[in-house]
């Protein structure tokens, strides 16, 4: 054995390599220039021999075994080749030819490390993770992972027999980032990271930045090339970038909330009987366009292990779930929706993550993504970890993840789940289970800064993209701009309205008179934030019943109540969201394990409910009074909100012009009001554009069927009024053209 080779081999590094704890293998392995020549060291356990050749195969050099453990080496007085191949023999007819992974330099530079450490590397997902690339004309995959507490990290997969000794990764300075380019690995390869902790424990972890995963219950990461999809939504994307914050407030936003796995299934008895993203694109787009929705909000798309979490306990933040296909399939889904004029909102879960062994939890043997103090780092009642929002690399992981979905998948909006649990340090905790902030308060300053950072970047770099908060408290300024010390969201779910209104609707009509404030209180704060009125999935699970079965009374009254409820929801200021299945009055509670009960549409009453919601949607799109002034007080005016005894309310909505005005009258009791008189803002004709009691909707048919002329008769503080028959449990909507009533001078 050449002494110069042996002098080069550092004893400590060599022993660490043998023990599987070397975190800088490039200092030992590969081709190195030394005084007087060059050395080449290769580590391949179980190899019988190793040869090095130039890429043409003409020059061949045998490497000598340094030990019996698979270490080979050679000394060269002159550089034998610029690029070389390794010919590794394991047995007869068992020869592997490959480039040396340790001959390639890292493509993660000082600027990458600096920005990542500052929490401002907005495309860190292009550096970390697994990316098919070509280096020095060699195809392979660049692997990189952040694991600063690890003793060592290796790439393991189906390409190296899951042997952690074969591809130990190289730690880049003090960044905590390990990297390695492995030649000849192809997209579709299955892999994990083998992490050896400082205590000597060996962990097998999925890639936090993986772009694809195996279908559960398998949980390894999958190498994916997400750069080769040909998008066809250029006109959509160009139009989107021209929008500003004010545009959203003036536009119709009517959201259909969907769980893709249970909207439709091929077979309810098959756990994997899912529709593919591409199948869903066509069927769902046709349905949504026909129904008149403007947006689809997707529950839980980022990879998650447990079906019952609905996607809200995420392990793969950068990978669309494999339940419905590949990343390219999901891109097709979004692309097709855009071509049909449908915006896509993605639910995003930065509030917590599960403790699954293969996921983010204790990723490198210590608290890394989660806060190390359990009083900050765990949700005791959810059984999950809380992100350490104050750690810059964690902030970068989350911020870049939002930008990843927007840029790489053309997502049009992000709905941030469980914002309240992020804002409050004591959320869901008892005394002694939480740690106050430095001022002794319960506000989570780090989470606030993270949300402000995200919203500022999205607003600046991706105009036209919505960021929506699911925030259930009275936190002030959720939708106020960051420069006004707000959180910077575009919209907030109106959880207070949803809870009050559903509690009101569940009451027997007789008792509604004693709870009238539940119906009207939301208008006291309707303009304090930019709201979305939601009837979401959370209200139709876990024993809460479907929306139809929340309604009191016998079958006919249930449907009448629900039609009235939907009509009031659409008339109330704020954008709209309805969970799938509720548009045709689903009877069974929603379950992620089965398809919606589409067979109900064989029954006339469910067809009529679907037709009613479709009519509401079309009316919503047609009349700017429904949406143009959602954020302006001029857009709403009570006519009468004080008739608690009769449980009748009336109000007007104003649109873009005097020609686009609507009058709403809602009767929340099963009592018909003949000769019902309501004050109106001006003289003229009031044309009935919607009556929930119409026969076509399943009602009794007590409709006006035309116009009512206003007369000069004082009512509800108005000079003019109209009189008509108000059906029981109904909503009647009139269109009118506002004018002062004064005759023009000739």
TrEMBL record:
Q: What are the EC numbers?
A: 2.4.1.18
Against CDD domains, the record matches this protein to:
AmyAc_Glg_BE (cd11322), E_set_GBE_prok_N (cd02855)
- Name the source's superkingdom: Bacteria
The metabolic or biological pathway listed in the UniProt record of this protein is: Glycan biosynthesis; glycogen biosynthesis
Q: Which Pfam families match?
A: Alpha-amylase, Alpha-amylase_C, CBM_48, GlgB_N
Q: Which GO terms describe its cellular component?
A: cytosol
**SUPFAM superfamilies found in the cross-reference section:** (Trans)glycosidases (SSF51445), E set domains (SSF81296), Glycosyl hydrolase domain (SSF51011)
In terms of HAMAP family, this protein maps to: GlgB
Annotated protein name in UniProt: 1,4-alpha-glucan branching enzyme GlgB
Taxonomic source organism: Anaeromicropila populeti
